[in-house]
Each structure stands twice: as structure tokens, then as C-alpha cells.
Design brief:
Helices cover about 35% and strands about 10% of the residues.
């Protein structure tokens, strides 16, 4: 990181040329390509096709009913996504059990509510496919469900109840917790959760999803297990990566067995390949102790895990970074922090560049038929389509996915396909209000652009 990368500046770029100048001044690797029609190309995964290169990232709305079924605002959000023209809609983190939610209004998939989930999937699929046909796309939408255990961010009976892979005072302090709160999960408990995860993944197929994401990012249970070097006397922890990744890889392996006759069902993951947390608590970082945050990058371990996924038949991976509960700038560069938060000691465009380059580095190390979904576009506002096109044109990523932008302006795919540039009066301004709503356990949406969330 050179000195200019450490100087925070908000987004002030009126013209594309202004952004290009700043990227050059900072010496960053952020590609810009004016021919956005490249984003209309379809992408092949095994026997399926994603109709185009734009996707909606999993963004929790925390608007489910208390029994975990989709609520009115859940339907409202997915209707907006379905009318967007995105070829891939990655449904938000859905809890595998009621007691592993991070919010009482998080979606939960269970045997009792499959009918309600089927209705949401069918509703979203029908509207999406009509939209795609109108836009001239021949292939049908791909719908993925993200399944999660919230780990140290669990809520029970309205209170924080961390279910940790190991103790970490810094993580506890960031959430106002002590070691006495919650538990360090046992191997026996992990084995039970492993089996439950597989059951719910099979259920996801039954309710009509095209694939399932075994979530391994953003500080939740699986991501934390990846860095559980200090977990004592455990087959799921310690120094060997084999132990730390075994919980995750066992789920993938057993799910493959269950789905061996389902050639068109996608098994995937959204993975934090780098979290910046200094060793021994970080993943994707150099094994050097006493480093400052953000730690130096070392993708040796993430690539080993991803290569094992490839050998198990996984052909789609969604690349992200960081633990937003701890240091959000790694996951989502922003102009304004959440209330009570601080501005990072880095330029937001440096954060964007990091996310883009992580996807590039991963893609460059994988066989061509592994489809890579990238993150980090929402910060770029009205110019995001040109950077997405640049990444696709240079074959640095296959699919460009947007999270916060989808809350602010769910029509971003249509606008990119038809105009190239996005309407600057509709874009995400990275004000962190959606993250603040999440922190306050409120329904999540865009307070700047969506009247539904303006108080």
C-alpha cells in the first residue's frame, strides 16, 4: 500500500474521466471498458446457462416472519430483483435452523415451511423469466439459495449468543461481548450441524432453487473455522488446513453424494478468500504474527480449499473478502461509516481494487470452466457498468454481482444493458444506512433511494 492508498477520500467523480484520473493517480488496477454489451453474454455452468453476466448478491432483508417464512417486504424485494434483468439472483443468507439466526426476522428453511419457499421461488422465477425475455435473453434465470449458520453472530431470545469456533477477544470487543457470553462449539455439535446443513441443502433443491451456496464468508461459522488454528484438541481445528476446512468440505462431499443424479443442480459457495485479520486469526493472510491490520495477502490456503472444491465437481464460486462485523471496509468500501463507526485508513478505491484483484487472482489459478463471480462494484456508482465490462472483457471474472446497488437501484442491470451508465440519482451512495439497519435489527433496505425505508 503506497501512501496515497492510505488517504481516505469520498466519491466526488462527476465524469468517467474524473474517475479514470483518480485511478491512475493512485496507481490502481481497475479496468474500464466502454462496450457494456459484453455483459449481455451468457455464461455456461455444466449443463446450465446464466443468461447474462450481471447478478444480485445475497443481501439479508431481515423481513421474514418470525417462523422464518418470507414476509411482505421479502416478496417486495424479490419482485424488484426479478424485474431487474439480472441473469443470476443469489438469495440471501437463510438460516439452517431457528437457533442459528443473526436476526429474529432472518429467513429459515425448514420441513414445515417448504410450501412458502416454493411460492417465493416460483414467484421470483416467473417474473424474472418474463423480464429476461422482454430484454431479448434466451436463457432462464438462475436462482441460488445461500444457507448459513451465523456462528459468533447468533441471536437467541433477542440477545446476542455467540457460537464461536474459538475465542478471540478483539471479535468479542467489537460486538460488546465477553468470553462468558455464548459458547465455543464442540466437535459433536459441529457434526450435528454438518448433517443439518446437508438436509437443508437437499431441501433447497426440493423447493425449486437451481443451486445452493454453503456460505463460507464474512466471519460466520464456516469462515471462522477456516482460521481456527487455536482451536484445541479438535478434528475441526488446529494448524493443519485439512482439519480447519474439513467441516466445510465434508458438507460439499456428502451433498455431492446426495445429488449424484441431479446433474443440473449447482453446489457452490460464497467465500471470503482474504479477511485482513493478522495471523493466527486470519484466513488468506501471510503466516506472520504481530502484523497490523490489514495483514499481508497470501492466497495459498484459500486456493487449496477451492482446488478441492473443483475436484469435488464445484464449478461456480462467489468471491468476497473480509468480516464486515469487524472491519467493514474490506467487504464493502464506503463513504460514510455506520453510526458510531470510523472512516478507514485507506482510500475506498483501494478497497474496490482489492476486491476486483482478489477475484482476478483466484480466476487466474483455476481451470477455465470454474465460473467466478466477483464483488466490489456498488461503490463505483453510475460508472459501475464500465468497470464490470472491463473485468469481463479482460477475462478477470465471469459474472459481476452487485449487493448494495440492488437495494438502492434494483433496475441497475436494465440500465447498464440499455444505457451503459447508471442514473446517478438512483445509485447507491455507500452511506452505510442499510448496514446500520442490519446492526439495529431493523428491516434492511435503502434509506436514500427507497421511500419504504425512509423514516
Amino acid at each position: 500500500m503506497n501512501p496515497s492508498h492510505k488517504q481516505f477520500e469520498p466519491f466526488t467523480y462527476k465524469k468517467l474521466n474524473d474517475l479514470e484520473k483518480k485511478i491512475a493517480e493512485l496507481g490502481l488496477d481497475i479496468p474500464i471498458y466502454p462496450r457494456v454489451e459484453i455483459l449481455q453474454q451468457r455464461v455456461n455452468i455444466n449443463n446450465l446457462f446464466i443468461p447474462n453476466r450481471l447478478a444480485i448478491q445475497p443481501m439479508e432483508g431481515f423481513d421474514a416472519n418470525l417462523d422464518g417464512t418470507p414476509g411482505k417486504l421479502t416478496y417486495r424485494r424479490y419482485e424488484r430483483y426479478a424485474k431487474s434483468g439480472a441473469g443470476l439472483i443469489w438469495f440471501e443468507a437463510t438460516a439452517i435452523t431457528e437457533d442459528c439466526r443473526s436476526n429474529p426476522h432472518q429467513l429459515v428453511l425448514s420441513e414445515k415451511n417448504v410450501k412458502k419457499f416454493k411460492e417465493l421461488v416460483s414467484f421470483t422465477r416467473n417474473i424474472s423469466n418474463k423480464t429476461l425475455r422482454k430484454l431479448g435473453f434466451d436463457n432462464k434465470v438462475i436462482l441460488i439459495l445461500q444457507l448459513n449458520h451465523s456462528g459468533r453472530y447468533c441471536i437467541r431470545d433477542g440477545k446476542k449468543y455467540p457460537i464461536r469456533a474459538y475465542l478471540n477477544k478483539d471479535f468479542d470487543k467489537a460486538k460488546g461481548l465477553s468470553e462468558k457470553d455464548g459458547i465455543v462449539i464442540s466437535d459433536d455439535q459441529l457434526k450435528e450441524i454438518e448433517e443439518k446443513w446437508i438436509q437443508k441443502a437437499v431441501l433447497a433443491k426440493g423447493v425449486g432453487f437451481d443451486g445452493v451456496d454453503i456460505k463460507s464468508c464474512h466471519g460466520y461459522l464456516i469462515h471462522e473455522l477456516f482460521s481456527s488454528r487455536l482451536r484445541k484438541n479438535s478434528k475441526y481445528g488446529g494448524n493443519p488446513l485439512k482439519n480447519r476446512a474439513s467441516f466445510f468440505l465434508n458438507i460439499i462431499k456428502e451433498l455431492n453424494k446426495k445429488m449424484k443424479n441431479e446433474r443440473n443442480f449447482i453446489i457452490t459457495t460464497r467465500m471470503s478468500v482474504y479477511d485482513g485479520i493478522p495471523y493466527p486469526y486470519g484466513f488468506g493472510v501471510k503466516p506472520v504474527e504481530n502484523e497490523n491490520f490489514p495483514a499481508l495477502l497470501d492466497l495459498t490456503e484459500p486456493l487449496k480449499v477451492i482446488n478441492k472444491l473443483y475436484k469435488q465437481g464445484v464449478r461456480l464460486i462467489n468471491i468476497t473478502a473480509g468480516n464486515p462485523h469487524y472491519k467493514p471496509q474490506i467487504t464493502r468500501p464506503f463513504d460514510i461509516p455506520v453510526k458510531g463507526g470510523t472512516l478507514p485508513n485507506e482510500h475506498p478505491l483501494y478497497g474496490v481494487s482489492r476486491l476486483l484483484n482478489l477475484a482476478t487472482l483466484i480466476k487466474n489459478h483455476l481451470p477455465e470452466d470454474m465460473v467466478v463471480v466477483g464483488s466490489g462494484y456498488s461503490y463505483l456508482r453510475q460508472f459501475a457498468g464500465y468497470i464490470a465490462a472491463g473485468m469481463a472483457h479482460e477475462k478477470r471474472v465471469d459474472v459481476c454481482a452487485f449487493g448494495r446497488m440492488a437495494l438502492a437501484n434494483p433496475n441497475f442491470p436494465k440500465q447498464i444493458f440499455q444505457e451503459g451508465i447508471l442514473d446517478k440519482k438512483q445509485v447507491c451512495i455507500t452511506c452505510s444506512k442499510c448496514s446500520e439497519f442490519m446492526k439495529l435489527r431493523k428491516n434492511v433496505g435503502c434509506a436514500t433511494r427507497d421511500p419504504q425505508y425512509q423514516s
